[in-house]
Structure formats: structure tokens, C-alpha cells
Write a structure and sequence with these properties.
129 residues, mainly alpha
Length: 129
């Protein structure tokens, strides 16, 4: 797999992840995210792009797709947990979390990005030998 293909998969997973994370709780939970107008979809997609866009930006520091494992696991893992546990019908202000989830995900993404950078540097060193 090339880094270009890995980036494409990263974007695809990033766009679909919030919806896929809702499926284990049933169709009612998925409908909490999908029963919106076009403006709601675009608003949700724009804030969701903060998280996967950060991982995509980090990927440009890497030469090998294996280096993307750490930021994807930590970032997408946090996002999966957050979207799986968020019940929008629990409180009138619960929808505000949709804005903050991708912002809070930047911390695990940054940690994963640093780990991935170290892995990428070590892989470069082994290739030089």
C-alpha cells in the first residue's frame, strides 16, 4: 500500500466513522445523526473534518503508511468512543458535544502523530542501513 492509498482510506474512514460508531446501538441512534437537513449534514461534516483533517495533515510528515497506525488508532479510537456514547436525546444541550468531540480528539491525534513520527524516523534509519 502506498501512502497515497492510505490517505484515501483515512479520509473515507474519517467521514464514515461517526455514523458507523452509532450502528451498534441500533437504527434509532444512527437516526440521531442522520435525521437532519442539508445544513445540518454540512455543519456536522465540517466539524468532523477537524479530526480526520488533522490526521491527514500529520500524514504529510510521513513517508511510510505504517507510520499512520498510531495517529489513526488513537484519534479514531477516541472518536469512536465519543460518538458511540453520545446520546443526543438525553439532554437539549447534548448536540453541543458534536462541536467539541473533534476538538478534544486533537490531543490523542497529536500524541499518535508524535509516535508515528518516531516510528517513521526509525523506519527511515533501517532503510538507510
Amino acid at each position: 500500500m502506498t501512502i497515497r492509498n492510505a490517505r484515501f482510506i483515512l479520509v473515507l474512514v474519517g467521514v464514515l466513522l461517526p455514523y458507523a460508531a452509532r450502528l451498534p446501538h441500533g437504527i434509532e441512534w444512527l437516526q440521531q445523526y442522520t435525521d437532519e437537513s442539508l445544513g445540518g449534514w454540512l455543519f456536522f461534516a465540517a466539524f468532523n473534518a477537524i479530526a480526520w483533517g488533522a490526521i491527514l495533515a500529520i500524514s504529510f510528515m510521513y513517508r511510510r503508511p505504517a507510520s499512520l497506525v498510531a495517529p489513526c488508532l488513537l484519534g479514531f479510537g477516541f472518536l469512536t468512543w465519543a460518538h458511540t456514547t453520545l446520546d443526543l436525546r438525553a439532554d437539549a444541550q447534548a448536540a453541543i458535544a458534536l462541536i467539541f468531540i473533534p476538538i478534544y480528539a486533537l490531543v490523542p491525534i497529536a500524541v499518535g502523530g508524535a509516535i508515528g513520527y518516531i516510528v517513521d524516523r526509525r523506519l527511515r534509519r533501517y532503510d538507510a542501513l
